[in-house]
Amino acid sequence: MIIFLYSIAAAAVLIYLPFLVVGYARARVGYDTSAPRAMFDKLPPYAQRATWAHQNSFEAFMIFAAAALMAYVTSVNSSTAAVAAIAFVAARLLYSIFYIVNIPLLRSLMFAIGSLSSGTLILLSIIQATS
């Protein structure tokens, strides 16, 4: 199903969504090209959270990309798999938003949905490969 490849591409783009917020905040506080990482402590709290959301997006993406590629390679073809792929992308978008605006409960819920989506794709791939 091509949805797996599209969802990987969308998830890759979403990694950088929080970084746009970081870039905005860096511009407001005065970007220091000689020490960009040292600027972290000067950033407002929302930009610090955006940095953490950006970093976490890399971590979640690696697992999801592997899971979606497993589903693609094993030819998983079910509505459950398609929903899992779409749910991951939607959950990660909302995860970043909830992280930046500081709503921890909803952020954690979106993290759980994303993780469950990746796990579902892995499980469906294993089932498909062994049948």
What would your notes on this structure say?
With 131 residues, this protein is mostly helical. It has a single domain, classed as Membrane associated eicosanoid/glutathione metabolism-like domain (Four Helix Bundle (Hemerythrin (Met), subunit A)). The protein is built from five helices and no strands. It is elongated and about 55 Å long. The two termini are 18 Å apart.
Structure class: mainly alpha
Q: What is the CATH domain class?
A: Mainly Alpha
The name of the CATH superfamily reads Membrane associated eicosanoid/glutathione metabolism-like domain
Strand count, sense and barrel status of the largest sheet are: none
Shape: elongated
Helix content: over 70%
Kindly estimate the percentage of residues that lie in beta strands according to DSSP. Answer: under 5%
Q: What letter string, H or E per element, gives the SSE order?
A: HHHHH
